[in-house]
């Protein structure tokens, strides 16, 4: 190889990677299509969820009465932040208080991540007729930009039939809070649970 070319290649690669970094701008998840909902129904659990979300899996939670559904929002572009959520039905005897559930999920998330976090602020949010609890905290050592360092845990609940309470929750990023909140309002408005083994 011509040594002059060999010397130029690393410079060109550096310029290209710098340009890509400058062009890449992460953005929140797309608005949930609550006016064109999909319907989930399995094992007695039924609810509507945004048309641009997908039900990925559902299963009984081992060792409890709870039944869990995992949802993901469509990711239309690489720059779009991931947004996922859970819908979980629990017998009232096993059902946590939503505000306490937020604290539990925050502790679990921070322990798993192993980051260094600032003070957690828990806020009451109103989406439709539902009160959601949103915990905001920041990872002080996150090095990939402010959107990725500003974390969110959000929980909402609704009575969903007989002795059952249903929850919608996410462990995500603060930039996605409005999208999650609108989706949760739809889910909690429509969720019903009548376990098939009763």
What does this entry look like structurally?
- The protein is of the alpha+beta class.
- It has a single domain (25-193), classed as Jelly Rolls (Sandwich).
- 28% of the residues lie in helices and 37% in strands.
- It contains four helices and ten strands, in the order αβββββαββαββαβ.
- The chain has helices spanning 3-23, 98-113, 146-149, 177-190, and strands at residues 38-42, 45-49, 53-60, 67-73, 84-91, 121-127, 130-138, 150-161, 164-173, 192-193.
- A hairpin with a 2-residue loop joins strand 6 (121-127) and strand 7 (130-138).
- Mean pLDDT is 85; it is low at 3-23.
- This is PsbP C-terminal domain-containing protein.
- Residues 1-21 form the signal peptide.
CATH class placement: Mainly Beta
Query: Which structural category do the helix and sheet elements fall into?
Result: alpha+beta
Compute the gyration radius: what is it?
A: 21 Å
Order of helices and strands: HEEEEEHEEHEEHE
Residue-averaged pLDDT, rounded?
85
- Poorly predicted regions: 3-23
Label the overall shape: globular
Helix content: 25-40%
Protein name: PsbP C-terminal domain-containing protein
Signal peptide: 1-21
Organism: Pseudoxanthomonas sacheonensis
Keywords: Signal
Essential attributes:
single chain, 198 residues, alpha+beta, Jelly Rolls, seven-stranded antiparallel sheet, three-stranded antiparallel sheet, 4 helices, 10 strands, disordered N terminus
């Amino acid at each position: 190889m011509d040594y002059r070319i060999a010397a130029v290649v690393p410079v060109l690669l550096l310029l290209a990677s710098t340009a890509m970094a400058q062009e890449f701008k992460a953005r929140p998840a797309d608005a949930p299509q609550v006016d064109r909902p999909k319907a989930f129904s399995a094992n007695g659990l039924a609810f509507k969820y945004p048309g641009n979300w997908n039900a990925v899996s559902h299963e009984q939670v081992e060792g409890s009465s709870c039944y869990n559904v995992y949802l993901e929002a469509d990711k239309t572009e690489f720059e779009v932040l991931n947004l996922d959520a859970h819908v979980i039905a629990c017998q009232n005897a096993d059902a946590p208080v939503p505000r306490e559930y937020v604290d539990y999920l925050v502790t679990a998330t921070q322990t798993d991540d192993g980051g260094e976090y600032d003070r957690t602020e828990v806020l009451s949010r109103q989406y439709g007729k539902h009160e959601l609890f949103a915990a905001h905290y920041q990872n002080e050592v996150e090095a990939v930009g402010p959107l990725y360092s500003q974390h969110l845990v959000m929980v909402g609940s609704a009575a969903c039939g007989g002795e059952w309470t249903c929850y919608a929750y996410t462990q995500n990023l603060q930039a996605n809070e409005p999208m999650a909140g609108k989706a949760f309002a739809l889910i909690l408005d429509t969720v019903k649970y009548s376990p098939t083994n009763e």
